[in-house]
Specification:
There is one protein chain. By secondary structure, the protein is of the alpha+beta class. It folds into two domains: 96 residues, Alpha-Beta Plaits; 132 residues, Pseudouridine synthase. The protein is 24% helix and 34% strand. The strands form three sheets. Strands 1, 2, 3, 4, 7, 10, 11, 12, 13 and 14 form a ten-stranded mixed sheet that branches. It has a two-stranded antiparallel sheet with strand order 5-6. Strand 12 and strand 13 form a beta hairpin. The two termini are 20 Å apart. The model has no long low-confidence stretch (mean pLDDT 87).
Length: 235
């Protein structure tokens, strides 16, 4: 059994949880031990985020993970104004910054400002490696995490709704862009502070969330969504 499996990751699951879940299902279907089944993903989502994961099943596909991880991505973002978070998202400790309520026009202007080729500093609570260790591990240990800014590409940020303190927008970005960092930069520009309160990934390259399978208890249909070479070549 091999191919590409699009999965709609539930909130609270890590990307590795999803990989393990699928690996066990494939192993059961093939009569193998899970450790003898190759399953990988092409880009993580934070546990609190939901949406599209592109999983690769079988050795012929997992070897293409690096290639597929470079695809552009689309996210639906919810940003909360007025506070910052130690982790950049809902999990961290919050610090009140300002109760100023920006106008819709100022928010649209800020969203437009953060498009194009930009320099972005990854969040301390990220999977970036520092001296061989994940940044989030060092941050959780209370150690100082210093990450260098790097170039990213943001194609568009489109405001979809604004009901203070919540701003909802769609962001189309290149690989390696951190939405938490984008939200923090927006909050600083607006002078209100901000953190990412919700995130949903809806597209990776030509792969869409509409084609993704959902994970449910005792799901015996998930593996039927695995696509083979033709789907990969048509992406």
């Amino acid at each position: 059994m091999q191919g590409i499996l699009l999965v709609d990751k539930p909130k609270g699951w890590t990307s590795f949880d999803v990989v393990n879940y699928v690996r066990k299902q494939v192993a059961t279907a093939e009569g193998k031990k899970p450790k003898n089944v190759k399953v990988g993903h092409t880009g993580t989502l934070d546990p609190l985020a939901t949406g599209l994961l592109v999983l690769l099943v079988g050795k012929a596909y997992t070897r293409r993970a690096g290639e597929l991880s470079k695809l552009d991505k689309t996210y639906e973002v919810v940003m909360k104004l007025g506070e910052t978070s130690s982790t950049g998202d809902e999990e961290g400790s919050k610090t009140a910054i300002s109760d100023e309520q920006p106008t819709r026009g100022s928010i649209e202007a800020a969203l437009q400002q953060f498009t194009g080729e930009l320099m972005q500093t990854p969040p301390a609570f990220s999977a970036m490696k520092i001296g061989g260790q994940r940044a989030y591990k060092l941050a959780r240990e209370g150690k100082t995490v210093e990450l260098e800014a790097r170039p990213v590409r943001i194609y568009s940020n489109t405001l979809t709704s604004y009901d203070y303190p919540y701003v909802r927008f769609t962001s189309e970005v290149g690989s390696g862009t951190y939405i938490r960092s984008l939200v923090e930069d927006l909050g600083e520009t607006l002078g209100t502070g901000a953190y990412m309160s919700d995130l949903r990934r809806t597209r990776i390259g030509n792969f869409s969330i509409e084609s993704a399978a959902r994970i449910v208890d005792a799901d015996d249909t998930l593996l039927g969504h695995i696509s083979t070479d033709r789907a990969l070549n048509d992406r």
